[in-house]
TrEMBL record:
Solcar-type repeats, residues: 25-98, 183-271
Name of the gene: SLC25A26
This protein's name: Mitochondrial S-adenosylmethionine carrier protein
Membrane topology: Multi-pass membrane protein
Keyword Cell cycle: no
Lineage: Eukaryota, Metazoa, Chordata, Craniata, Vertebrata
Length: 280
């Protein structure tokens, strides 16, 4: 739902709560609450995301900045988070409406998975440029966010902002396919956190490939965006450890993020609905 980096993927745990609520009259409240909760997750867990990116970077953790400047690139994440979440929610709801089926139909899970996948494809149009700028800032804290954005446009054009689009969509599609059950309480969120942690481990190689593609030097083979080539390059030089670089901060961010998102979402939505009832 929003920078669907590790922190954004954590929102998958609370995904069914949000989308279930959006079927009712509180659609706008759910949309705004989801966006605000997404921004909250991104900002609170941003240090874990920076550590993960630096662990996955080709120059290594220490040369990429270590523990210094762990909020480098945060403006890009903050700017992209809300519109990214909104793009996902709106696309999800529209596709779900377009594929209308009987609620008792055995095709319901398929409808939700297709709608979620379509939501990811559209949301990545916003997420990927934000992610490219953010990750480059995370491994080069001496450069400012706008400067990095300008350099990408100057050197590579719009295409440079969409490096890693394929690997990002693949990664997010795998996440969306596990989101076909309604989460109706915090106990379910606990189960979701464990399931999310497991899924985070399994999809880490795709996340590593995405990071390598986004950080690759202009003109290099990795910069072409070939996911399998990027994975093979990591395997050849670093083996299995390289493919699972950053797995611990990534898993922690995704597991914790679900609870932060759910708490922020519940509080914000309740406040917005209360304000809506009080207005004439």
């Amino acid at each position: 739902m929003g920078s669907r980096s590790a922190s954004a993927q954590s929102r998958s745990i609370a995904f069914a709560v949000v989308c279930g609520a959006m079927e009712g009259p509180g659609f706008m409240a759910s949309l705004v609450a989801g966006g605000i909760a997404g921004v909250s997750v991104d900002l609170i867990l941003y240090p874990l995301d920076t550590i993960k990116t630096r662990l996955q970077s080709p120059q290594g953790f220490n040369k990429a900045g270590g523990f210094r400047g762990i909020y480098a690139g945060v403006p890009s994440a903050a700017i992209g988070s809300f519109p990214n979440a909104a793009a996902f929610f709106i696309t999800y709801e529209y596709v779900k409406w377009f594929l209308h089926t009987d609620s008792s139909s055995y095709l319901m899970p398929v409808k939700h998975m297709l709608a979620a996948s379509a939501g990811e494809v559209v949301a990545c149009l916003i997420r990927v440029p934000s992610e490219v700028v953010k990750q480059r800032a995370q491994v080069s804290s001496s450069s400012r966010t706008f400067q990095i954005f300008s350099n990408v446009l100057y050197q590579e054009g719009i295409r440079g902002l969409y490096r890693g689009y394929t690997s990002t969509v693949l990664r997010e599609a795998l996440w969306s396919w596990r989101q076909d059950h309604v989460v109706d309480c915090w106990q379910s969120a606990v189960c979701g956190a464990f399931a999310g942690g497991f899924a985070a481990v399994v999809t880490t190689p795709l996340d590593v490939a995405k990071t390598r593609i986004m950080l690759a030097k202009v003109g290099s083979s990795t910069a072409s965006g070939n996911v399998l080539s990027a994975l093979h390059g990591v395997w050849r030089t670093q083996g299995l450890a390289g493919l699972f670089a950053g797995v611990f901060p990534r898993t922690a961010a995704i597991s914790l993020g679900g609870f932060i998102f759910l708490g922020a979402y519940d509080q914000t939505r309740s406040l917005l609905l209360e304000l809506g009832r009080g207005s004439p």
